[in-house]
């Protein structure tokens, strides 16, 4: 394989969490007096950190979200994850093949470390990622679309950005990877291909990914 490191986003790439998370987020924002549809949440927040939610609501309304917003959102989201979350179809086989072929890989997500761990444990993917290979937006000053998270992951793993491939499903993530100088493979199973058009390659089934990475 021509890459020295494959960096996976978590939500929507490893675990099928975007429908659950954005349903909960849109409902909670609407409950707080900021009407938000599921489609609004996907458009505005998919791939971003919780801080992005705070920032956009403040910019649009001049109102700050409650101090306990993040904690409450996490509690509701984790409860849904523990009962409903599933891995993305085919991703376990991809991870197993990378391990067999000794291809370094890690996870870099806008989610908190707790959110990542809850998701990986529920889906059984935690065996593929020890703590040294999990990176969160909590670890850097700026989340996606800034390149900081991917650059941090590459540095920690000891691989130059130009030799990294990122697997992403959100426009914010694609922009972050491109800004980091990395190739990015846009997973378009849920996200329209047009919104991932800046990706190096697009695919819609995890069974396609290994062949793309090996080209």
Low confidence ranges: none
Main sheet?
A: 6 strands, parallel
SSE ordering: EHHHHHEHEHEHEEH
Give the strand content.
5-15%
According to DSSP, the number of beta strands is 6
Query: Shape from CA axes?
Result: globular
Distance between the termini: 8 Å
CATH structural fold name of the largest domain: Rossmann fold
The CATH architecture of the largest domain can be given as 3-Layer(aba) Sandwich
Provide the spatial order of strands within the biggest beta sheet. Answer: 3-2-1-4-5-6
Work out the count of structural domains: 2
Structural class: alpha/beta
At the first level of CATH, the class of the largest domain is: Alpha Beta
Please report the number of helical segments.
Answer: 9
| The CATH superfamily title of the largest domain | HAD superfamily/HAD-like
Using the CA coordinates, give the radius of gyration. Answer: 16 Å
Helix content: 40-55%
Task: Tell me the layout of helices and strands.
Elements: E1 5-8, H1 18-31, H2 38-45, H3 50-61, H4 69-84, H5 91-100, E2 105-109, H6 113-123, E3 134-136, H7 148-157, E4 164-168, H8 171-179, E5 183-187, E6 201-203, H9 209-214
Parallel strand pairs: 1-2, 1-4, 2-3, 4-5, 5-6
Describe the protein.
This protein is α/β, with parallel strands linked by helices and 215 residues long. It folds into 2 domains: 5-16 and 86-214, Rossmann fold, CATH 3.40.50; 18-84, Orthogonal Bundle (DNA polymerase, domain 1), CATH 1.10.150.240. 45% of the residues lie in helices and 12% in strands. Helix 6 (113-123) links the parallel strand 2 (105-109) and strand 3 (134-136). Helix 4 runs parallel beside helix 6 (113-123). It is globular and about 50 Å long. The model has no long low-confidence stretch (mean pLDDT 96). This is HAD family hydrolase. Keywords: Hydrolase, Magnesium, Metal-binding. Its cofactor is Mg(2+).
């Amino acid at each position: 394989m021509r890459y020295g490191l494959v960096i996976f986003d978590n939500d929507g790439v490893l675990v099928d969490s975007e429908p659950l998370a954005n349903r909960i987020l849109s409902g909670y924002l609407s409950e707080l007096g900021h009407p938000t549809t599921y489609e609004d949440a996907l458009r505005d927040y998919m791939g971003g950190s919780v801080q992005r939610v705070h920032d956009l609501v403040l910019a649009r309304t001049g109102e700050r979200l409650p101090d306990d917003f993040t904690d409450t959102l996490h509690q509701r989201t984790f409860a849904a994850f523990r009962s409903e979350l599933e891995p993305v179809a085919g991703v376990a086989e991809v991870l197993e093949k990378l391990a067999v072929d000794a291809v370094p890989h890690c996870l870099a997500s806008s989610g908190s470390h707790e959110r990542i761990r809850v998701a990986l444990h529920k889906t059984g993917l935690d065996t593929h990622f020890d703590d040294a290979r999990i990176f969160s937006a909590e670890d850097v000053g700026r989340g996606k679309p800034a390149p900081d998270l991917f650059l941090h992951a590459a540095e920690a793993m000891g691989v130059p950005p130009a030799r990294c491939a990122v697997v992403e499903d959100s426009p914010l993530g694609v922009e972050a990877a491109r800004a980091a100088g990395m190739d990015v493979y846009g997973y378009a199973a849920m996200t329209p291909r047009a919104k991932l058009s800046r990706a190096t390659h697009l695919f819609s089934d995890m069974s396609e990914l290994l062949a793309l990475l090996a080209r």
